[in-house]
């Protein structure tokens, strides 16, 4: 399994399998072609031997009686066998059916028992033969020549064996060359792996791509883009932690001061009220930080289901009624029935809560807040709008209010954390919604509109 995960081994296996398959197909074609050619060549060779022997015989050969064979001198040396030595012949006198001349190794029985002329396959002495017979013009003498099938097959397998040895040598050389070439090509990748292993955990600088093969470079380019995004995310998280630490340190110091004032004040009521406001602000900041962390942790999760947005709005507004009453504010809610959206109930609760909290804090004492939830039948969308009649936000700052830790100028001295509306924008994006800002009630104040895609029935 580890071997097949190797690019070099995988490439070598695929190329070798392709070459072997192509070679096997070529060998099969060559076998068929060679078998046909060899059969034709052997037939021509056997026929040529028979015809040449017939033409070399004297015209009175039919009068000769078979005698013993002549022998070579004792000191003579036979030459090594050739393929012609495997061909045997017989000279027959047809009217006597008697063999007057025969080659060494020729069988005693006729190669063609029927003494017919031409090529034929015959069984002689229990062995298959390929034979050819030719008769002279007078019809008195017939020359029969032949070669065993075993010899023909041996010749064919000698050729196949030589081809196999050559092919194996070529394949071994090709495999070695491929192994070395792939290793040489992947050497920059090996160096890159070593460079990555030596890096510090937070070193997110782009990886070098100058020497990489063209096939690997797109992967490393994509990885470098990921490193760039990760570097931005790490810097953003560091900035977030620094800002969060600062935001928590400031109200804690204020709480400590107000607590000391309350302890030493003859009338601690005002100090306790300020202490309560500080605790509320600290609790709100802690909740927003927790919400932000939860959204970051769950941003890859898809748990969106059908929800009634109006019900969520009603529950959230009810939570803020006591706070609004203490500030002498009024909150009005108008919601159409059966406004279904696809979303995560926790995320949508955070979105509505931050919109209402932002309006309550910045509307000022005696302010008016309106929360509306309506459907747009023309576009099939659901619109959530929260607006107030407070001092509002300057037009040039309206788009920046959704940036994390951005605090715009306001006319009531309320200090925010710069987190609430950034959460609204992030949750809206994750739900495919769009956010718009505008002027609040009666041409004053601030309004935020979140437009959700409606459920498709």
Automatic annotation (TrEMBL):
EC number: 2.7.13.3
Record's bilayer topology term: Multi-pass membrane protein
Domain Histidine kinase residues, every copy: 243-456
Ligase recorded as keyword: no
Gene Ontology CC terms: plasma membrane
Intracellular or extracellular location(s): Membrane
Domain HAMP: 183-235
Alphabetized UniProt keyword annotations: ATP-binding, Kinase, Membrane, Nucleotide-binding, Phosphoprotein, Transferase, Transmembrane, Transmembrane helix, Two-component regulatory system
First-listed, main subcellular location of the protein, grouped into a coarse class: membrane
InterPro entries in UniProt: 2CSK_N, HAMP_dom, HATPase_C_sf, HATPase_dom, His_kinase_dom, HisK_dim/P_dom, HisK_dim/P_sf, Sig_transdc_His_kin-like_C
GO molecular function: ATP binding; phosphorelay sensor kinase activity
Catalysed transformations (reactions): ATP + protein L-histidine = ADP + protein N-phospho-L-histidine
Top-level taxon: Bacteria
A Pfam family recorded for this sequence: HATPase_c
Transmembrane segments: 166-186
Name used for this protein in its record: histidine kinase
